[in-house]
Amino acid sequence: QLQVVESGGGLVQLGGSLTLSCRLSGPTLEGYTLGWFRQAPGKGREGISCISRSDGITDYAESVKGRFTISRENAKNMVYLQMNTLKTEDTAVYFCAAQPGVVVGGSCLDLQYNIWGRGTQVTVSS
Question: What is the pLDDT of residue 1?
């Protein structure tokens, strides 16, 4: 299976921007659906964005739609999450995830991901 390592987290001002990166090593990345999740203190893990295996179709949670953008560079084994207009509610540990499966209809957010990174902290300060 893939090894997943997130990076790029840190402290950012309210309304600012930050880009998270995820390095995946192992089998060819092109064959995987990729997603970003987050977990705020005292709360469960929330799926916020995902991108399909080959056609580039993306989906976003309502809480981040219009502010976050997911992208992938298969040749570099990388997936990114560009976060704009950050809110204090975006403060969380962000996780990158991958799944070697296809999504037939519906959203890739509904896919069961079985390969996870350890997370990177994002803190939005007022």
Answer: 67
